[in-house]
Structure formats: C-alpha cells, structure tokens
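A note from the maintainers: we've had questions about how concatenated examples are separated. There is no special marker in the raw files; a new sequence line simply starts the next protein. For clarity in this README we add a label.
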Amino acid sequence: MAPLEVSQFLGSVQGQSHHRFPGTAGRFSSLMPWSTLNTVLRQHRLDFPRLRLAMDGDVVPAHTYTEMVTPKRGPQIPKLLSAPLTEHLRNGATLVLDAVQELVDPVADLTARLEHDLRERVQVNLYAGWGKTHGFDVHWDDHDAFILQISGRKRWRIHGATRPSPLHRDVEPPPQPPAEPIAEFMLEDGDALYVPRGHWHDVSAIGEESLHLTIGFNPATGVDLVNWLADQLRVDERFRRDLPRFGTESARHTHAAELKAGIEALLTPDVVDRFLTDRDAHGPAHTRIGLPWAATSDLLPPQDTVAVQLLTPRAVLRHQDSTVTLLAAGSRFTFAAAAGPVLSALLSGTPTAVEALVEMAEPTLDRDTVRALLGELITQGLLAVA
C-alpha cells in the first residue's frame, strides 16, 4: 500500500476506484521467478482450464499444445508439448495458470498473510506474455484484485465501472463502457495495482516479456449475508413447514406474517458481526502436511526450536471464564482457558517456534501439555510444521 496507509486504502479505495502503487524493479521477483515457473510447468500435470493459453480474446485449443498420455494406472493425463507451446507464445499468446498458491511456497505464504488481513479467501493466478496482442478483450471481473508485476511490463487501460458492485449471477449485466479509458499506463516491474470488481479494463503486451500475478478475493456482500440467514432459518419449524399453497388467502397472509417475524428476529443490530464471524470460522484450512512427523505418533519433531503455523488464517478465538473456543474450518474446539495464550499466538498465522509457545504458557501449562495441544491441532488438520 505504501505510501498509502492501509486504513486509507480500506476506507477510500477498496471497492471504489483503481489505484496504482509504484515500486522498485525486482520487488516481487522472489515470489515467482521464471525458473520457478519453468519448474511448475515441467513437474506438474496441469489440466485445462487451470492451465490455458489466450490470444486476442479467445482461448487457444488445448490440444494444439498438449497431448494425453496414459500412465500404467488411472485415466489419461495431459502432457505439455514444449515446441507448440512456445510457438503459441512467440506468436503472441498469453499463458494463464490458476491457483498458483497451491504450487509455489512463497506465493502460498503471501496468500495466507493476505487472507489473514483481508478476512476473505484469496486465489492467485499467473499471466505471462511476450507478444504485442492482448490476451483478453475489455472486460470486468466479479472479484477485487491486486496485480503484482513480477517481471517486464504491460499496458493497462482502465475504463471504470458502469454498474455499481456487480455480482456473479447478477440480475442484469453492466452496460458496456465508453471506448476511451479513464486511465492508461504502463505497469512496470515492481509495481502493484488494485482493481475493484466491476471495473472494466483491458491489458496488452508490448512486445516484451511480462509476468504478473493477479490476487483475487471476494469481499462479503449483503447477498452473502441473506444466503447465510436462509441457512440459519432452517432451525425454525416455521420455515421448514410447507407453504399453504392450497389454503385460504387469510392462511397465506398469516403464514407470511410468521415468516416475516422469524426473519426480523434474526436481523439484530449485530447480524453483520455474527455473519462475518461465522464466515471466518468456516474459512477452509490451507494444505500443509508436515511429513514425516505428522504421520508418526509424536506428531512433532523432538526439538522445540521447530516452528509451527496455524493453517486457518481466519480462525476465530472466543474466551470464556474457564474455557477458550477455537472456531476454525467449520469446526469448534474447546480447551481450558490456560490454552488461550498459545492459541492467541498461533492466530496471527505466522510461524512460531514451539519453545516460544511453551514460554508463553508458563507457569500454567508445562512443556508436555503445550506439545499435546499442538499435536491435537495437527491431528485436526489445523496446524503443521512450518
């Protein structure tokens, strides 16, 4: 965000307007260097459309740069063909790879930190191009996005929004934007860009290499809250009961009044807080296995110098008089209140040494009890050796 304060961004930029954050060349190079991309393409079987090529607004047929091979067991899997793939790229195609946070550790670590701070699920897609064409026509996305220019540069044209806060599966599409952009600039190596959902844009290569990451996330909306309320209403027999389709008009009006009363009972002043807390508590755990120790009865290495990390960046901790409850990955775990300092430290999402957690718990909990607590979190898929 620098030089913009994070609070300024959240208060006056997010969801309202695009913003460019200039940076020094190489600022993001460690996230996804070309060598790492080459390794990912070589070592992973990436099905279409997760890996795809785009050119002049169209998707390049996958069969023109892949072949299906049959392993000794299981179904056919795709194999990239180097020569036709690179020929497409030389001719101006853009390479797109979705969900790279599942493939590259530095991107995974960044994703976890952002999910912790933004309180929303995050996905990172990669775009690489060399030509002078554009991979996609002018379009808008149904998610907010940060763009990190890893290498090279690209020309961006921002056309603004024509419908405030459009949604996926909206009741009508946004009108087309004016032909002339409201902003046109070159995104350089080390620059970052924020684009809110619904803001039309198009991106063009300029005959030079370009590699950027798009970090997408969907802030919670009122529609999400209403969908959540609908699930909460399942506990109420009035909402599970059949509608009086064949009843009298009076019966239907009475039933409608009962439903209205049930909905209004849930629309308390804290309904937004309750919804967001529940949304965070159901955020899925990131995948990190922690072998070989996680597959043993010890669960952790014997050395307390090892660091562990909570795998649910949006977990919620509730303190009661004698207990503390961890809400994570859709489950509820209750511990004695003495576990509070350890769980609070883990909630930051950053790797923390076991010895530091043991020290935090003293003198209430001893070392063996702290390690047993960590082991329980490992067995639940909520914690792993960092």
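[label: protein 2]
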Amino acid sequence: MNYELFIAKRIIAGKKYKNSISSPIIKIAITAIALGIIIMLIAVATAAGLQTKIRDKMAGFKGHVQIVNYDNNNSDVSTTPINKEQDFYPDFKNIDGIKNVQAFASKFGILRTDTDFEGIIFKGVSADYDWSFMQEYLVAGKVPDLNQPRTKEILLSQTIINRLQLKLNDTIAATFLKTTASKIPSNRKYIISGIYNSGFAQFDKNMMIGDIREVQKLNRWTENQVGGFEVILDNFDDIEEKGEEIYKEISLTLNAKTILESYPTVFDWIKLFDNNVWFIIGIMILIAGINMITALLVLILERVQMIGILKALGSNNSSIRKIFLYNASYLILKGMFWGNIIGLTIIGVQYFFKIITLNPETYYVATMPVHISIGAILALNIGTLVLCFLMLIIPSYIITKINPSKSIKFA
C-alpha cells in the first residue's frame, strides 16, 4: 500500500484542509496554473492559426512553387512566354508529394467605370486550375467556367467590387497596355461571375482571375505559350525540399522559386510568432511554478506538527516529502483541468463564431484564425506538469530541517 498517497488523499479530502489558513493561497496557486494553461493554449492556437492561414493563402494565390522564365525579373506580370509542352507538365514523373501543376499567365490592366478606375493584375488560368482555395473564400456567384471554347467570366475580390461600386453579373470594361508604347491599348469587356474575399489585402486589392486564353490573346501568344506554372504540394512542410527537387527537374532556362523565396519578409514575420509563443510559455510556467512553490511552503509550515509526528513514528524525510509533492501535484492537475476546459472553450468559440477580428492590411486575415493539435495540447500539459513538479522538489527539502521533538512540543 502506498501510504504516502493515502495520507495525501486524506489531507486533500479533509474539511480542515479546505478551511485552513492556506486555503486562499492554494486557490491563488490553482488559479495561476489555470490562467497559465489558458494563455499558453491561446498563444499556441493563435500563432499556429495565423501561420497556417497566411501560408495557405499565399499558396492559394501563388502556388507553393512557381516555375517561370528567368527573364521575368520577379515581376507579377508575365513578360516572356514559356512553351506549355514541358516534361513536368501536367505531372512530375520523378517527384512525389505534388498535388497539382497548373499553367498561368498574368498581365497588368485597368478596370474602368463611368466614374472610377482601378489597376489590376489579370491572372489567366487554364482548365487544370485548382479552384478549391477560391471556392473557400467565394462570397457570391461562381468561379469562371473554363471548359468553354472561350469565356469572358472573371472572378473579382470584394475589395475591388466595393471600390468600383460593382455587383455580381455586372459587365466591366478593362484596358490593357501593349508591350510597345506606340501601339493603341487593348479594350475588353468581362462579366463578373464570382466575388471572393480572402482577407489577404495584398492580393485582394488588385487580383482578377479569368481565362488564360484572354491573356494569351492580349499578348499575341499561341495556345502553347504560357507565363509559367504553379506547383501545389501535398504538404507545406516539404516546400524547401520539393523546391530543390523541382529546380533540378526543369530546363536550365527556367527558374523554380518557392513562395518562401518570393515573399521572404512575410514568412520571416510569421516565424517571429514562434519566438513570442516560447516566451509566453516560459513566463507562464515560471509564474505558475512560483505560485506552487509558495503554496507548498505554506502547506508544509501549516502542518509542522503532523510532520513531527510522522517522523516520530518512523517516517523518513523522503516519504514525508512524497506526501506533500502528491498534494502539490493534485493542485497542479486541478488547475490544469480547469485551464484546459476554459482555454479550449475560448478557442472553440473563436473557431466557430469568429468573434475576434483583425486588420487584414496588417495581419493578412480578417478574423483571428485558431489551430491547435492534440499533440500540442498534450505537450503543453505534460510539459507544465513536469516542470512545475521539478520546481517543487528543492523547496520540499525544508521538511528535512524540521525537528520532531521541537515541532511536537511547540505545536
């Protein structure tokens, strides 16, 4: 029989324990543990949510890896065409983990109404384009039907729609400059078949998506000439490895760049979230540990007489320390229990109801995204329990300094 655990349970269940002088301090310690768990869960969930959502949006607009001609000079506009007939299109035969390879071509243009105008990047895509990302953020209408011989349907963002005071199914005039300045610009009319709102202001403010054949015609390219290829991966975590493999598989005249290389400032910024999360976790565990040390010391000092009696009856210091460490572990687990209940409830409410909003100009999302895995929850809880327990071992040695004869005599 584990008599240390038995005595610890009797102490916890006793009425005197609940109404003792140490009761307020114990409640504060439990509250500190609970608040620490709540804050750590929220910090991990929001950081992971922002990182996941931002990188998914970047990949949705640009693909995980872009294959373009070296002559494009990092421009969002396709300047030099690539032959569509490539060994890697429509599938990479020697590389696993690739979900889709889709052709695209982009051209700068201006949308015009009777009273206003807006600069846009017309991104032309083909029938093999993966619309799953746009479908997620579609707020009205439908995506363009690219299976027709030719379509004038386009997809516009809610941002552009609001600026130009347009609505679904409106016809919009667009002007595209020729590569030669002396030539007259091309004018086209398109039908707004769908409206999307990704919350990513960097792209929402100027991205128009339509038929790649329109861009080919504007650039006077053949149907086998495209601006580049977007590669969609199965797993974002493999992006650097797959980026190198793709670069080795393509022609020497082509360049393959991951979105990490194309937008380094954005990804460097979201990496900082990890540092912030580790800092918050460290501070919360330290605060919780200090509170638990205080509670443990008060518990020990409050039960000096009991410690003296146990020593007089033959209990050694190690056994008595175990009694109080069991007691402290119970307090830690109680605080963790309530912290998990409250923390996961807050995360769930934000996930389903999107209560907390953000400025998309700054954070690239309109609402605070949350994402947390079972592994992260277990790691936080186990880590908190172990670290707090280890912090209590040294203070528990105060029990060895208690003299049985004096503690019993003066109790």
